[in-house]
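INFO batch 0412 | record 1 of 1 | parsing
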Amino acid sequence: MGIGVSLILIAVGAVLAFAVHVTTSGLNVNTVGYILLVVGVVGALISLAFWSSWGGVGSRRRTVVDEGPAAGRRTVVQDDVV
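INFO prediction complete | emitting tokens
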């Protein structure tokens, strides 16, 4: 789930939880809204956590190419998280 889908779930959940006042039997629309809100927030947090680990804010990538005569060619990619 991406950040866009999470924002849509949060918006739809907030509308159902806070703005819709309907009385139905067997289904509480407000509860469905709260569930969508929670799922959207959890999805957004997970998306942000993976986004930062893939090169978001606070991470740097450094590529070192070593072409020594005895070792041949070697490429090292280092990820430093600050």
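INFO post-check: The first helix runs from residue 3 to 19.
INFO record closed
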